[in-house]
Amino acid sequence: MTTERHEPDQTAGERAMLEGWLDYHRQTLAAKCEGLTDEQLRTASVPPSELSLMGLVRHMAEVERAWFRKVLTGDDPGPIYYTEEDHDGDFHVTGTDTWQQAYATWQTEIGIARRHAAGFALDDLSQGKSRFTDRPFNLRWIYTHMIEEYARHNGHADLIRERIDGATGD
After folding, report:
1. Which of 3, 18, 47, 92 could form a disulfide with 143 if both were Cys (CB 3.0 to 4.6 A apart)?
2. CA distance 43 to 157
3. What CATH number corresponds to the domain at position 55?
């Protein structure tokens, strides 16, 4: 499978632009993981760091869930990978964790995020709360934050992928 990345139209409206850049960064992370085995996707960047491509995908599934479910709509289904005892459980992959599972979970959370966001205007305020503040966020802020979150982690993914097999790129 080859992930196609599409930059948003340069003349798109604000919402289409924000959604387009978020999707572009989602596609970028998927592309960074293509063509690797589960073992390679579980490979940590540089010891002692446990950061891996699979861990980044699991983390982004948690982030999608937190911002578009818990914060935006007030729906709190609980964490996927982390626990009270292990706040970084999304990054702590084991030999039994698979790309198929991680990818499916991530894509499910992206689908739910899109459906929830579709019910809000950019200026609409969130109905839930984040772990950082009790103040609400508008959807515009959430989109912007998610673009920043993906962009930062896509930089990590570039370095991890280059270390695994030398592949570089956008």
Report:
1. 18
2. 12
3. 1.20.120.450
Q: Which residue in this structure is represented by tokens 């073992």?
A: 39
Domains in the chain, number: 1
Q: What is the pLDDT along the chain (170 residues), one digit of tens a residue?
A: 678 888 999 999 999 999 999 999 999 999 999 999 999 999 998 888 999 999 999 999 999 999 999 999 999 999 999 999 999 999 999 999 999 999 999 999 999 999 999 999 999 999 998 888 889 999 999 999 999 999 999 999 999 999 999 988 77
Q: Which residue has the tokens 């490979």?
A: 43
Tokens 């005892």, located at residue: 85
What is the pTM assigned to this prediction?
A: 0.95
Task: Give residue 92's domain range.
Answer: 41-165
Peptide bond preceding 48: is omega within 30 degrees of 0, i.e. cis? yes
- Give the single-character DSSP code of 109: H
Helix (H) or strand (E) holding 165: helix 139-165
Q: Does residue 27 fall inside a structural domain?
A: no
Backbone angles phi, psi at 117, to 5 degrees: -60, -35
Can you tell me the distance from the alpha carbon of 148 to that of 151, in angstroms, rounded to the nearest whole number? 5
Q: How far is CA 59 from the centre of its chain?
A: 6
Alpha helices, DSSP H only, in 6-138? 14-33, 38-41, 53-65, 72-73, 99-118
